[in-house]
Structures are given as structure tokens and as C-alpha cells.
Amino acid sequence: MSALLVRHEANRLGRDIAVGDIHGHFTRLRAALDRARFDPAVDRLFSVGDLVDRGPESEQVLDWLALPWFHAVRGNHEDIAIRYAKGNPVDQTSYIANGGAWFVTQPLARRPVYAEAFARLPLAREIETPAGPVGIVHADSPVRDWSRLVWSLRLWRAARDRAMWSRDRLQGENADGVAGLRALVVGHTPVEDPVVLGNVHHIDTGGWMQDGRFTLLDLATLQAIPPMG
Ligand SMILES: [Mn+2]
Question: From ligand 1's centre to the CA of 190, what distance in Å?
């Protein structure tokens, strides 16, 4: 079983940057990174998951997951692919409607290649920054105190589901925040501009959508990186 939480030491050489849901738009992501002068020699990119489905380049995900500077957590779309490849019940019509056609049409032998790569992704990451630890999950923290995260994820499917699927905090405008972290960064629910509730940063500004853009959040400053001309 893969690790539920992976911890990263502070990056003393470059920047640590988080990006929202990618959904098969790696060319657009590459352009956003170029505009931010992302330097793969020293910078690191942390993805909140949902790497695949909806966009045209989902099959590139394996190349991205192999990059030494790219670190993703598992999103609900990776979760669906894992279940589908295992033969667990997945509503195929709704899967296709949510962008999963590329996976449904993969040759049978290819499905486990993707599913195994997705199953290796942790549900959470924790990155040390000068001002304290920053957490990353796809949708939400299932615990109010981050120190209880691993225990909770290990014991309860409901906690794992909440980490990958919940929209409750954003929809309820819950500003309680998560103790034990400087900030938590999540995606999953599209927002026009980044939304901060307590110390929880919602950064899926729809880089995969027609009129959206990728927000690149600098984890040291917790500010979006403005594109450079
Ligand atoms: Mn999602």
C-alpha cells in the first residue's frame, strides 16, 4: 500500500509552487509554468490532483508523474480510474460524461499501467516552508487537526473519500481552518479567483476550462505568482 501522506523537506534552492486541477491540459500547464519562469532545476511543482479526464492530453500523465520536480496527490478522477481498472462498479455513462472516455477506451492491458501509477500517489502531502508546514489534499482535510490525518485516513474510507471528494467546506463557507498547518491547499471545486477560508486555500481556477486559468501559488508567500512578460 502506498503512503497516505508524503512529507517534503524545505526547498532551500528554489520555489515550491502549487497548481490546481489539470484535467488533461498539460500544454496549458507548461505555458503557465513558462510564464512564471518555473525552473525545473530548482523549483518544485505540487499538484492537488485531478490530472486526467476532460482535456485532450490525459495520456501524458505518466510522463508528468515521472518528472523529479512534479509531486501530485490523488484526486477523485484518479480514484475513479483506479476503481474502474479494478473492475469495481463505476457508472460508465457518468464517467464518460465527466471526461473519462480516454480511459474507458484504453486497451485492457494499458488500464493497470495508469491505475498503478495513480495508486502510488499519496492522498496528502506536507511541505515544509520557512513559515511552517503547508498541506495539500485534493478536496478537503477530513480532520480539524492535521496531526490526526494519517490515523483518520488509515481507519476510515469516509475520511479518504472526504479528502478526494468533499465540497462541504467551500459550499458551507466554513472558515474554521485546519490546525497544525500554516496553510492547506486544495482544488476540486472550480472558483473564479482563489478563495481562502481560514487557512485553507482553494486554487482550482479552472485552468482546464474554456475561460479559466491556472493559479500558481507560491507556498513560501501563499501568493499567486503573477505571469511575467
Ligand atoms: Mn476533483
Answer: 9
Pairing of strands 216-218, 223-224: antiparallel
Gap between the Cα atoms of 59 and 47, Å rounded: 17
Please write the tens of the pLDDT for every residue from 118-166.
999 999 999 999 999 999 999 999 999 999 999 999 999 999 999 999 9
R_g (Cα) of the chain, nearest Å: 16
DSSP letters spanning 59-78: GGHHHHHT-TTEEE---HHH
Report helix, strand or coil for 126: strand
**pLDDT higher than 60, residue 1:** no
Q: State the Cα–Cα distance between residues 178 and 162, nearest whole angstrom.
A: 14
For residue 182, report the distance from its CA to the centre of ligand 1, in Å.
23
Q: Which of 8, 23, 25, 77 is catalytic?
A: 77
> How does pLDDT run across 47-101, given as a tens digit for each residue?
999 999 999 999 999 999 999 999 999 999 999 999 999 988 889 999 999 999 9
Residue type, 5: L
Say how many Å lie between the CA of residue 146 and the centre of ligand 1.
21
CATH architecture of 5-223: 4-Layer Sandwich (3.60)
Say how many Å lie between the CA of residue 23 and the centre of ligand 1: 9
Active site residue 8: no
